[in-house]
């Protein structure tokens, strides 16, 4: 209710201002902000608010005139549609002017060329949503991208503009580069030149077996989703919706494919995962046709066999870096794709069992709540973006915490196998995830024990040293795991006593760490090293030296102002008289 009132007042404020948001922009703004405060907004309230916002903000047809920096809409049908403008910033307007001039010059010298330039895909979508995008993909109706980029550079040089080098990106379907691309910079903006394309696919591969110049319509229909199939015509300043669905889907918040979902996914199964990522990025709904198609065993088999695991990992990485990873995970779970995306190790190598994947989804939701709530949160926020990414990756893999995998002569956490083999993510992700999983139980025990009696410096310090500099992240994950039974209370936006007590319990542990000055005790160096211990005790190298070094650290934690000589005396008294020495 509070959020709804705030949004109502914001509506009035916007109406009083200059009506700068388009219909698409405000729908997106409303959708994202409702979700920011509530994981399950009222659809009735949202639709009522949307209607009110439309009526006060979207009367674009009544606006008079049009500037060269704004665009109208072209659809593939003749029905009257609301006018939505793309407003170019100064750099974009200048780049478009330069490209238009180059094209006009080419048409005079090569009248048979019939060249048209369109900005394609994500830039158009983002501009309609009121978002800035510094990457421009320019689709050429004719002429190869590298050749055109060289002509543009000649024009820039002749007219006193700075020029940049041109990178030629050869065809590489595994990285979604199906035609040669030329990459350069114009006035500081990243620009890729590529041709409009038409593709046919092999039965058993997502790599096209035939790629040719296509029409704008063919190119639009071969894209993954309708909101990514919009064009901005540089010469006419018009948005072209050649699928006839992109603008309406952008307005209503729908992820839909230009062709049938079956054909789109059969051609390139990676698009299934991209649908999830874009739905999560903008908090859009996934069309029912897509949901039904993903159940198709042929499509599911293609997901397993036609996509490289590197590409899966890239998409998952973008999800966990995105604005709402838990929504991505929720979609993966609801579409029954967890075991396809986060594939399990071979059964013969497994020790233990995987838990219900919903544990990972719910853990991530609690982490989102801990990160976003303005009250009852932990006293170790905010955290850096890279740590948040690691937390979300670890959270979705928590179903694997009880599973090990046989790796040669040792047993390793199953999560390490998934990260390495199923997602092909860097080794650093493996190391971090294992470090977050390992201390969950010890942090849980420490938080509860600290409630009974304040932990002493050696006890708490050794726990933090065992975890290392990831201890704040491990603590957040431990809280999320402990609060799993209370998820419904958290979602209600009125957390019960168990939630509040759990948060306070871990805050008390954090407070104790700060009181004892242990925040960075993981970097504490041994006041006596291994060689000194061996000389002191007259012993040979061996595993016992590590035990004695641990005692040195324990002594240092208990005596933060102690000297080296005092520590040596302690070690001699404790270990020097043992028979084994």
From TrEMBL:
<keyword id="KW-0547">Nucleotide-binding</keyword>
<dbReference type="GO" id="GO:0001680">
    <property type="term" value="P:tRNA 3'-terminal CCA addition"/>
</dbReference>
<feature type="domain" description="tRNA nucleotidyltransferase/poly(A) polymerase RNA and SrmB- binding">
    <location>
        <begin position="284"/>
        <end position="342"/>
    </location>
</feature>
<dbReference type="InterPro" id="IPR002646">
    <property type="entry name" value="PolA_pol_head_dom"/>
</dbReference>
<feature type="domain" description="Poly A polymerase head">
    <location>
        <begin position="117"/>
        <end position="256"/>
    </location>
</feature>
<dbReference type="Pfam" id="PF01743">
    <property type="entry name" value="PolyA_pol"/>
</dbReference>
<dbReference type="InterPro" id="IPR043519">
    <property type="entry name" value="NT_sf"/>
</dbReference>
<dbReference type="InterPro" id="IPR032828">
    <property type="entry name" value="PolyA_RNA-bd"/>
</dbReference>
<keyword id="KW-0694">RNA-binding</keyword>
<dbReference type="GO" id="GO:0000166">
    <property type="term" value="F:nucleotide binding"/>
</dbReference>
<dbReference type="GO" id="GO:0003723">
    <property type="term" value="F:RNA binding"/>
</dbReference>
<dbReference type="Pfam" id="PF12627">
    <property type="entry name" value="PolyA_pol_RNAbd"/>
</dbReference>
<comment type="similarity">
    <text>Belongs to the tRNA nucleotidyltransferase/poly(A) polymerase family.</text>
</comment>
<dbReference type="GO" id="GO:0052929">
    <property type="term" value="F:ATP:3'-cytidine-cytidine-tRNA adenylyltransferase activity"/>
</dbReference>
<protein>
    <submittedName>
        <fullName>11836_t:CDS:1</fullName>
    </submittedName>
</protein>
<dbReference type="GO" id="GO:0005739">
    <property type="term" value="C:mitochondrion"/>
</dbReference>
<dbReference type="GO" id="GO:0052927">
    <property type="term" value="F:CC tRNA cytidylyltransferase activity"/>
</dbReference>
<keyword id="KW-0808">Transferase</keyword>
């Amino acid at each position: 209710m509070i959020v709804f009132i705030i949004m109502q007042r914001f509506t009035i404020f916007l109406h009083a201002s200059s009506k700068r948001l388009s219909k698409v922009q405000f729908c997106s703004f409303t959708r994202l902000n409702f979700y920011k405060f509530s994981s399950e907004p009222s659809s009735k309230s949202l639709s009522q608010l949307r209607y009110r916002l439309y009526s006060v903000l979207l009367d674009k047809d009544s606006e008079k005139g049009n500037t060269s920096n704004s665009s109208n809409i072209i659809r593939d049908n003749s029905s009257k549609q609301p006018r939505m403008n793309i407003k170019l910033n100064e750099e974009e307007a200048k780049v478009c002017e330069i490209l238009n001039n180059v094209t006009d010059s080419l048409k005079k010298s090569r009248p048979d060329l019939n060249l048209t330039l369109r900005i394609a895909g994500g830039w158009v979508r983002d501009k309609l949503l009121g978002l800035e995008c510094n990457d421009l993909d320019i689709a050429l109706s004719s002429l190869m991208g590298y050749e055109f980029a060289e002509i543009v550079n000649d024009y820039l040089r002749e007219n006193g503009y700075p020029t940049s080098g041109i990178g030629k990106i050869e065809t590489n379907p595994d990285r979604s580069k199906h035609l040669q691309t030329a990459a350069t910079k114009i006035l500081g903006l990243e620009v890729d030149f590529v041709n409009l394309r038409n593709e046919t696919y092999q039965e058993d591969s997502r790599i096209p077996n035939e790629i040719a110049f296509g029409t704008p319509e063919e190119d639009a229909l071969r894209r993954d989703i309708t909101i990514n199939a919009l064009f901005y015509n540089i010469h006419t300043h018009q948005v072209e919706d050649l699928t006839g669905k992109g603008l309406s889907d952008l307005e209503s918040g729908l992820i839909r494919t230009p062709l049938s979902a079956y054909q789109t996914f059969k051609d390139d199964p990676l698009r299934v995962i991209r649908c999830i990522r874009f739905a999560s990025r903008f908090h859009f709904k996934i069309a029912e046709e897509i949901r039904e198609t993903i159940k198709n065993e042929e499509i599911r088999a293609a997901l397993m066999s036609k996509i490289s695991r590197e590409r899966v990992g890239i998409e998952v990485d973008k999800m966990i870096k995105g604005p709402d990873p838990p929504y991505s995970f929720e979609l993966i779970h609801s579409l029954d794709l967890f075991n396809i995306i986060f594939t399990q190790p071979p059964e013969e190598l497994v020790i233990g069992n995987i838990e219900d994947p919903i544990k990972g989804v719910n853990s991530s939701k609690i982490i989102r709540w801990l990160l976003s709530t303005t009250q009852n949160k932990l006293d170790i926020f905010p955290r850096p973006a890279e740590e948040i990414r690691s937390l979300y990756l670890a959270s979705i893999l928590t179903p694997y915490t009880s599973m090990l995998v046989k790796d040669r002569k040792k047993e390793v956490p199953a999560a390490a196998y998934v990260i390495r083999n199923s997602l092909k993510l860097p080794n650093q992700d493996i190391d971090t995830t294992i470090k977050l999983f390992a201390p969950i139980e010890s942090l849980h025990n420490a938080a509860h024990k600290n409630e009974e009696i304040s932990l002493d410096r050696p006890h708490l310090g050794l726990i933090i040293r065992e975890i290392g500099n990831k201890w704040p992240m491990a603590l957040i994950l431990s809280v999320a795991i402990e609060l799993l039974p209370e998820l419904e209370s958290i979602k209600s936006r009125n957390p019960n006593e168990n939630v509040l007590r759990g948060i306070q319990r871990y805050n008390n542990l954090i407070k104790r760490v700060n009181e004892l000055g242990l925040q960075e005790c993981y970097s504490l160096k041994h006041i006596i090293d291994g060689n000194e211990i061996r000389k002191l005790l007259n012993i040979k190298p061996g595993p016992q030296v590590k035990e004695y070094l641990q005692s040195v650290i324990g002594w240092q934690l208990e005596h933060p102002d102690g000297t080296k000589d005092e520590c040596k005396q302690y070690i001699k008294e404790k270990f020097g008289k043992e028979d084994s020495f």
